[in-house]
Design a protein that fits this description.
The chain is of the alpha+beta class. The protein has 6 helices and 8 strands. About 20% of the residues lie in helices and about 35% in strands.
């Protein structure tokens, strides 16, 4: 299915597949999607160590006080900010995969984790609508309280361990595409 909408299409049907994430010199799924739409991706990344929010720590199976590596990103199409995304990675995974390097390398941090022995074999995403805070209002040029989407992405290894949780906050106008096998 191809969208005729000129918005950014976040295609969950294939965005995390290795061949898609690593297409050309892509730095990950976002980079690949923006380029496929004819845009110019740019990401500003702040890397720090801190505890994850309680709901994220619960998904990661760690204590709410445990330190994680956080990759806080402002994601642009050209000069337009189109998404805020914060990734939380347990310390042992982050250290093994060199996640603290601001440059995620070809294929992004999912590829770095696979290289370090933490290959993700399943992704679960939860999408909720929420009212924009002042932060999102300022970032995306919308009114406080405007309905936006939040996507909480959890990446799991074959053993069932969550090795990454990313909270995506796309700006207005995105199209989310999903597919599910029926057999």
């Amino acid at each position: 299915m191809t969208s005729t909408n000129p918005a950014i299409v976040r295609d969950a049907t294939e965005r995390y597949r290795k061949e898609r994430r690593e297409a050309g010199e892509s730095r990950g799924a976002f980079d690949t999607e923006i380029r496929r739409l004819g845009g110019t991706p740019r990401v500003e990344t702040e890397v720090r160590r801190s505890a994850a929010p309680a709901n994220v720590a619960e998904i990661l199976g760690i204590a709410a006080t445990d330190e994680t590596v956080v990759r806080a990103r402002h994601m642009y199409n050209g000069d337009q900010l189109v998404q805020l995304a914060d990734s939380y990675v347990p310390m042992d995974v982050a250290e093994a995969a060199n996640i603290e390097n601001p440059d995620p390398g070809k294929g992004g941090i999912i590829s770095r984790m696979a290289d370090a022995g933490f290959e993700q074999t399943e992704v679960i995403e939860e999408v909720v609508q929420y009212p924009a805070t002042q932060i999102e209002a300022d970032a995306f040029g919308v009114e406080v309280g405007t309905s936006l989407l939040q996507i909480t992405h959890a990446g799991y290894t074959a053993t069932g361990r969550a090795v990454e949780v990313t909270v995506h906050r796309p700006g207005p106008g995105w199209v989310l595409r999903f597919s599910a096998p029926l057999a």
